[in-house]
Amino acid sequence: MFVERRRVQRVRLSDPLRGTIGESRVFIVDVSLRGLRIAHQEQIGEKGAGVTLRAQWDGKPLELKCEIARTQVHRLAQSATAKTLYHSGVEIRQVMGTSAMTLRELIEAHVMRALDEQKANANGVPAVAAQHFQTGKASHFKRHELFAGRWRETATSDPTQPPNGFTVSAEHSPEEVAMLRSAFEQGDAASGGRDLIWRLAKLSISSQEGVPTRRFMP
Q: Which residue has the higher pLDDT, 3 or 177?
């Protein structure tokens, strides 16, 4: 178990992280170094029960021994075929393997994104956080294009940047792609926000060194 040198606030994930507790599928909604809030449809146990939560973030495994602190109904089923959605708070009791580092990096990434968004809002420009936009030279890509408010993803070997989206390495995680999509939607030609995303995308797929990362030091 790691030692927390400075208190890190609970952060809400921009995209819920899929995981499992036993045979039940869960989604991590927000996270701190001491506990998590998860969404689920199946029962995962009573208050005080010990559970093992497994997930993966940025290609790294996350395995946490937790204790259920509370469970409440978040949304009731609206039909006979629908399922009730529950939210549970779980406290971390033991971190397995390299999960301590993964958990801290997950929090750091969302803290940096929040700081970027705050700075961007103050300056009136879209936020583009580069802390997890690092990759070597790639040969397989995915083109992400925005049509009528909906994104379309296409596998391609052509690194060309489309006017209505961007092309990045196929190895980018869903979290990175979601971040870029959000920034692209907020940007426009006038502010130069989309030009910045295109430059980052071009650099990430053409540079052997990739884009330098930024680190949040707690």
A: 177
